[in-house]
Every structure is written in C-alpha cells, then in structure tokens.
Amino acid sequence: MIATASRVIGVGFSLLVILTAALLHGVDPQQVELAGSYVGIHIYVDFAVRTDDLTVLMLAVVGVVSACVQLYSIGYLEKRVASYTALVTLFTAAMVTVVISDSLFLLLIGWEVMGVCSYLLIGHYWERQDARSGAMKAFLMTRLGDVGFLFGIFVLGLAGDTFRISGLRADEMSSPALTAGTLLLLVGVVGKSAQVPLQTWLPDAMPGPSPVSALIHAATMVAAGVFLIARLYDLFTAADATLTVLAIVACVTMLFAALCAMAAVEVKRVLAWSTVSQLAIMFAGLSLGTKDGRHAALFHLLTHAAFKGLLFLCAGVLLHQVGSAAFVVLRRYTRRGALRRAMPVTFVTMTIGLGALAGVPGLAGFFSKDSVVEAAWDHARDGSTLGWVVLMSVCVTAAMTAFYCVRLWLWVFFRTPALAGALGAFEADDPMADLEDPDLSKLHEPSWLMLAPLVVLAIGAAGLGYVDGVHVNWVIALVTTVLALFGALPAYSLWQRGADPRPVLLEREFGVDTAYQRLFVVPVRWFAKLAVGGDRDVIGGYVRATGRAGTLASEGFRRLQTGNVQTYLTAAVVGVVALAVLAGVIGS
Description:
Radius of gyration: 31 Å
EC number: 1.6.5.-
Shape: elongated
GO biological process, one term: electron transport coupled proton transport
Order of helices and strands: HEEHHHHHHHHHHHHHHHHHHHHHH
GO molecular function, one term: NADH dehydrogenase (ubiquinone) activity
Membrane topology: Multi-pass membrane protein
Distance between the termini: 100 Å
Organism: Kribbella qitaiheensis
C-alpha cells in the first residue's frame, strides 16, 4: 500500500511540474521574493524565485523525463520501492528548485540536495560493492567541485553587493572579482557535469537502477551545470578568461569521453561516456560567448534529454530481460539477432535514440548538433581562434559519436557474422558457445508501463528538432553527415569482420582512475596514516606522559602519608634544619 501510494505521488508530482511549465509559458518574466534577512550590516540574503523562458524550458524537460522515469519504474523496480520513489521525487524537486531560483543560496540548496539524492539513488542496490563504491565516488568528486562553487557564490555576491541572480551586473564588479567568481562556479559545474578532470564518477555510477541513470543523465544533476552557465550567461561572457577555460575543458572532455565510449563493452557505460561527451558539446557552445552559442547549447540540452533518457530506459529493458547490459553477456543473443526479433518495440525506439545521438539527418540530434557547429563556424569566421578550436573538436567528436552508436547498435541487435578480436576471445572461452539458439520465449517486451515512456521519448527524439523551426544550413548539414558516415563505416566494417579491437589505453580509459589513485588517494592515505601516527605517538604520548607523571606524583605523595608520627616529626626537623642552613648561606 505504501509503495503504491508513493508511486502515485511520484507520478503526480512530475505531472504537476509539466502543468506548471504549461501555465508559465508565455508569462512575462518576473521575480518574487519569498523571504530574506540581513547578515551583518550590509549583506542581505533572500530567497526569491523567477519565471522566464529558460525556467519554462527546463521545467518542461525535468517534468517530462521525470514522469517517464516514474512511470517506467513501476514496471522496472521491485526492491525498496517506497524509498526509491521518495528519493526520485525529492531529486526532481531539487532540480526544480535550481531551475526556479533567483537567489544564489536557494540555488545552492537545490544543488546540494541533488548531490545527496544522487548518492542514495546510485547506491540503491547497496548490497552490491560496485554500487556502494560508485555512490561514494560520485558523492566525493561532486562535493570536491562544490567547495569551489560555494566560494564562487560568496565572491560574486559580495562583489555585486547582492545574492539575487537577476541583480548581479558584470559592469558593477571588478574584473578580478568577476573572473575569480565565475572560475570558482565553473569548478562546481565541472564536478556536477562530470567534465575533465572530474569526469570519472559518472561512468562508475552505472550500477544504480537504469531509470535513475536516465534521470541523472537526461534532466537533472549533470544538466544543472549547463543550466547554471546559461542562467548566469551575462557574467560568464564578461569574463573572457573563464570562457577560455570553459572552451578548453569542453574540447578536451568531448574528445576524451568519445574515445572512451568507442572502447567500452557495457551498454550503460557507453551511454555514460556519451553523456559526458555531449555535455561537453553544450559547454563548447556556451564557451563561444554569443547568443547563437547559448541558444544552440540549450537546444542540444533539450534534444539530448529526449534521446539520452530514451537510451538509458532501453538499456534498462535489456538489463531487465537479459540480466546484464554488457556486450560480453548479451553475446548469446546478439550473435543470432535474437533481441531484435523478440523485442521489436525496444529495437525501434533504441534505434531512434542512437540515430538521434549519432546525428542522423531528420532526427532531433541532427538539428541541435548542427546548430552548435553553425554557431562555432560563425564565430570562427569572425577571426576567433577559440571558434576554430571548438568547431574542429565538435566535428571530430561527431564522427566518433557515429562510430560508437553504430558499434553499439550492430553488436546488440544484429547477427554477428563471426566473432573474433576481443569479443571472440570471450566467445572462445564460453562453455555455452556451442549451444543452439537460446529459447526466445524467455525474451519478450516488458509491460506497457515500461514501453509507454520509450514511445513518448522516441517521439521527442525524432521530432524535437522541428520545434525550433526548421533552419538548416545545407553546407554544414552535408559536412556533418559525411563526418557521421566516416565514423559509421569503420564500425560497420569491424562488425562485419567480427572484430572489435579495443586498444589497451582506451579499454582502461587512459588509466585516469589509476593515475588518480597514485596521485591523490595514495598520498592522502599516507598523510592520514601520518596524522594518525602523530596524534597517537606524539600528541597522545604527551597526554599519556602527563597523566603518568600525575599518577607517579600522587603515588609518591601517597607513600609519604605513612601515619607514623615519629616519621612526620623527623621530616619536620629535617626541613627546619635545611631552611636554617639555606638562610645562613644566603645571609653570608
């Protein structure tokens, strides 16, 4: 009964968010103060909300994806349903708080609540070691970035003499304060959105339930970083150094993550690295510092929410039906194309999602990706080196994205001609390799509660590109389509030959976790042991010595108290004689 009630409340809250977005659509931008007070003499901290076009856009994205996730979870989740639904609802509410905030401190509250909810949801299957480790890693790495985020709020608020977002003016701040404040905020954005160098937590968060992954990757948490920069865009565009740092981080991240996705062997891990890469494309658009760049980034955020939420929910169907989202476990079915025949709805919807991600012409991702490329091209033509760097990075990333999308699609859904290479090695050691086709009766589509969200998000992944008005630069469209083909053809060729080579460097994801282990974890543990040893052996030694000295002194005084009057008189006489001798010596 409790689980059913919580599910109804969860779906209802998500629908309420959608209704709120619909009611606010077309309303004039406004700010409303809820509460406030002075801290000290001159600092006024208030909690205010605002409505504008960006608020409506994000509320629609959050509401639709959250409703799909809540509905999908009814058929997906069977364990700890009540706590899960409560946390997902709180997670959604925290993102809504971030979206509607016109106060930096109110935004911070929603920002931090999302971090706590993500920790609890990623670790939902707490009996699994990988889930516990992934949750702790996500919590620590995002908290590390949030330290800079908090200081950034203080710097901007004190420099602008207000903590109201709508009241912050770049021309009223000194250049050093503006640059420092935006850079500190960028540290928090990098942590929350899993950008280099704080990117490794997101792929390791995959042991969490698939609908949680869809919510984190599509509408909350990682999307909050893009939203924040778009909300404070006037401040960021006035800080050239910050935009340059953002562009460098974005370009490095999109290429790094795309390379990792090309070698990953788990469906959800491929999608996780894809999210890191696609977020970097949004940040790259924002780093251009132009109106077109901001518009393109938000457009890609909208389409990405649809197709990435769809892909994670499809991965959840595979996990739910087959038992694992890894290529190496799916091989019994993928070798014969069983999944495509047994689950046609999942196949079609996931095909649409991967096509949108790869930028197939006509799908939503094609339009939004091209809008970023076009914004970078316009900026580059104005003589901007930054524009050229962004343009080349996005184009190369587009080709690599097509590669891992086609690779994933072929290996999961189509008959493998001949297994060789890395996966062939797994197949050679598989004791079930010589068995006949698996029993397809064990494979079937899930209930409509899980399929309905797939269909809704697939419609979005196919049609959202047209809501912005069909504006196509045919030259850029031709170039990006050719780049996608250049990425897709090698993936098809490798699959046709049954090969899936993964260089050791890529398979180990450039050894970043190992490097972090040696550079940070090992030294921290060493210093922790040193601190413990110093506390135990030095400071604790002094404390223990003081206590021991007191004990010995009391023991000595105790021995003097013998109860023998003759001993007391003798001691008194000796004392008097000693004092007399001492007085005589001093007097002479």
